[in-house]
Design a protein that fits this description.
The protein is an alpha+beta fold. 28% of the residues lie in helices and 26% in strands. The chain is built from 9 helices and 13 strands.
Amino acid sequence: MHSVEISSSLAKKQMETVGAVRNHLSKFRVECRDAADKNAWGSMDQQPCWVIMLEVLDNLPHDLIYSENQVSPWMEVWVEKQQNGGVLSESYKPLEDPLIKRCVEIMDLEKDHNSQGRAISAARHIWSKVFPKPRRCWLPTGCLKLFEVLHGALPKMSLIASDFSYLPDVRIPGERAPLVSAKKDGISSDHSSYLDAKGDADIFFPTDFQLLECMDHFCSGWLKAGEYKSSKQGRKRRTITLETSSFMEEFGLPSKTRTIDGYNPLLDDYKNTKFYLSVPTHNIR
């Protein structure tokens, strides 16, 4: 088993934990590096393998895009430090980052603008002028980059990923917005702006599992950006998303964790988490 860990302190801790059992140490290796670094993987490995990511996706980098109303084009959101006092503020620039543009294409965010007739389009423009509604959207660009690298390095991998499907009490605006929380004197408090997180806060992003599946198929080479094929013909991955309780009933031992009063943490807890399973098909070459 190989563990890829970007933190040197956590990599050391993993070796110490596994090393506590002597016969495990010879079968375990920690590589302290960024899993999303393409060059660090070396040449492509065609051997089948398993990739397990538990609560990895919620900590990956995300990008924020903004539109001033319902019909205006999406803009990249940049964070800049003001000269007077070093206050952080947002600025907006046209989409130029290749990773952001690929993510926007996969999500097909421009479909409403491009597929409507003249009458509907004109009505939307009038409505946006009378009742403008700014839009904010958080993009899982870190996940997309990681998937691109993994599919390039390990094309025959089988993947298991588990993470939060939603987060409660999110105060930050925007689709797929994160929960930004800090703890002081044992008391947790949630921030209403990500700009308040200056190194002393935890940031968790919910995972859009339908989008995760689209990115998986896109990175495998089967699904083109902006397209969704209902047919399974030529599909390179077999995928399924399960509630955590369903996954544990199928692959766990829930009979071993049931308490006297009937409560079962494997089935009754973790209601806001899901499992994503993805395995290669015979279409892999």
